[in-house]
Amino acid sequence: MSALDDPTRATIGALSSLIRDGRLSPVDLLDAVLHRARTEDHRLSAFVHLSDTARMAAEHAHAEIAAGDWKGPLHGVPIAIKDNHTTADMPTRAGTMAPGIAFPLEDAHAVARLRAAGAIPFAKTRMHEFAWGMETPPTRNPHDLERVPGGSSGGSGAAVAAGLAPAALGSDTGGSIRIPASLCGCVGFKPSFGLIGRSGIVPHSWSLDHAGPLTASVGDAAIVTKAMAEPDPTDPGCLGCDAPDWHEALAAGARGLRIGVCRTHFFENLVPAVADSVEEAIVALGRAGAEIVEFDLPEIGQGLGAIFAIELASSTNYHDQRLRSGAVNHFDADVRLLVEMGRLVSGADYLQAERFRRHLAERLAPVFDQVDVIAGPTMPLTAWRSGETEVRIGDRLESIVAVSWRLTYPWNLLGLPAISLPCGTDGSGMPIGLQIAGPVLGEAQVLRAAAAAEHALGGPMHRVASSF
Amino acid sequence: MTDAPDDPLDPHVLTGLDLPPDRLREVGAAFAEIRAEIEKLRALDLGDTHPAVVFQPYRGRR
User: Fold this and answer.
1) CA distance to A54, A67, A77, A339, per residue, from A57 (Å)
2) Based on CB atoms within 10 Å of each CB, which residue in A28, A177, A378, A424 is the most buried?
3) What is the DSSP string of B20-46?
4) Which residues in chain B are closer than 8 Å to A324, comparing Cβ atoms?
5) ipTM of the prediction
6) pLDDT for A53-87, tens place per residue?
7) Would residue A82 show up in a list of annotated catalytic residues for this protein?
8) Closest Cβ opposite residue A305 in set B27, B30, B41
């Protein structure tokens, strides 16, 4: 089926060629996307709001392109926005229904950059309340409606995987882009800390929060990321640099690429299907010409307490006035509990966590002299059933928070670029994610390795059909 | 909320959480798994390593 036959199943790369050449109108594309959202989302609950102004923007894009003013690969492409990014034309709730909480009607930096690139924000996606959880209720996984989509960008993951959005924005503090990408079967990319400015994104943990896209292909992730990566003077954490052109990296293939594999931590206590699929993906990269370099770094698995300390303390500090006023009593029970718990983290714990971050970064730096990227699973397991609070892998019982973050959090602590892409399914057809990380501002080699893996595994993901 | 508001070791004073005792116990119990991980973190000897996030004098918006 071609992109023209059903544009909701196409990548941005395919759509942009059709739009540029005048064979697909942004208006027709938006209508197709909105039709699918209106007819299918009642089962997924991926969206919390559909834009009233997107069609006008699509008509404007159509006129611009017809007049020869094509702005680039996002021009006329509808993109869904996670509900913690403020938007000028859609309300922002950050996943909460608590009364008395309001956010401004203005575009977050990332959203403004997308609009400047010609993209059309058309919906807000459901998220776990205040980005503090991994389930995103009541959003459902399009591969199995009884299972979670992951979180906290669960609506974004479900929407992209089901073809309800060509791409969606997410945010990632401990894994919140890569977790739903892995569980729903799409690509999720968290670039280096500060590459994308975060002004206008409701904070969760200032030194851990990253912005990034969820997409149908690695190439699409590069397109959307590049559009958003521009200096943001109102985000103190923004690196203030533009993104380079990643076209060459995406096409470079695996030959000569050094792929690091750390068995410690990243390959411990996985469900067998995840272990098998990730192993096969690494072997496929090797067959494609990559050099597989095994290394060990025992410290990589010692940081769960560090991210707990930083994230709990930061979130509780952000919500402190709501904690004092009792407004947190209106939060969902799980989120209220986490906000209250943050008071149990001491200042010394917080600083020990920050010292551990530097220690781990210093220990990891020499590894990147030997390898270009590090590959492993994104998640130890596939999507669990809605309502489960603990999961058992082998003889180990873990909380959802711990099992979700286990393999993703190191790259948040270190602020390094990391991507998740589909690499297989388990016996029930639930997606499995391959995670590839690189050194700071090493987006080029991460995208190169991910594109090579995607190619070696048969090309970009197929979106879930309407039968969910 | 507390029977001994002047007790410096009172959990309400220590945590700053103005919660009924049952709720405070619930929060503490839920924190157990996280506390176990933070205990491992506390046990690490990080030598002279400085924190990743350090103070820098504010130079205005760049």
Assistant:
1) 5, 15, 10, 39
2) A177
3) -HHHHHHHHHHTHHHHHHHHHHHH---
4) 18
5) 0.90
6) 999 999 999 999 999 999 999 999 999 999 999 99
7) yes
8) B41
